[in-house]
Amino acid sequence: MPSRTLPPPPPPVEMRAWPDREALLADRARAMGELIRLSIGVPRLLLLWLTVAGFAVGWSLIGAALAAFEESIDPLSYLFGGIFACTGAACVIPTGVVIGFGIRRDKLVRERLGQWSSLERDPLRDAHLRSPAQSLFWFIPSFLLGALGLWMCFAIPATAKPGRETYAEVALMMGLGFILWLTGLIGVAKAVSHYRWAVRLLSAAGSPAGARQAHAGSRGRAHR
Predict the structure, then answer these.
(1) Mean pLDDT of 36-41
(2) Is the separation of the CB atoms in 135 and 40 below 8 Å?
(3) H helices within 41-131, ranges in order?
(4) Do the Cβ atoms of 202 and 123 come closer than 8 Å?
(5) Cα–Cα dist 129/29, whole Å
(6) Per-domain residue ranges for the chain?
């Protein structure tokens, strides 16, 4: 999934040069807002679905190759099966690698969010970072997609009958169901992870310890 460059982590303590607390909070809000957009923004979900669609197309071609090998009666069937298998692999391998890099990148985004959020407390700006609409936009379709995929994984082999469905057809549909389930799981995990992060952030900002930390930080910078 193509992505924009991530905002850098906050500088080490000995290299911080913000003139006052307000400048620090402004940079913190900009970095966190960009990280949230790169994590649960609507384009990210569409890119995930597009990449998974490419993976599903590749798996469908592999399923067509399995069907050709299973029902082959002449060398030409093996030829077409080999072509389908190679084309499917050409879709599955790169899209699978891209999905893997996307998952690794999401982990880095969460780490950067944690670093910037722990830098200071700012309840007023942090309240706008909850993004409940975007979380729901990720959660609801992802949950439905995962439920459909899980149903396909169990219902299709349970209802398959010899002579009506081939092994290749069952494997194809189960594979597609697993792809849908895994895609839904990724989306649900991201929505829930963002919600839990936002709850912890706002709870810490609203706690007496968080208020004391923010007050102490403002006083310390005022003395400089």
Answers:
(1) 90
(2) yes
(3) 42-70, 75-117, 123-126
(4) yes
(5) 9
(6) 21-120+134-223
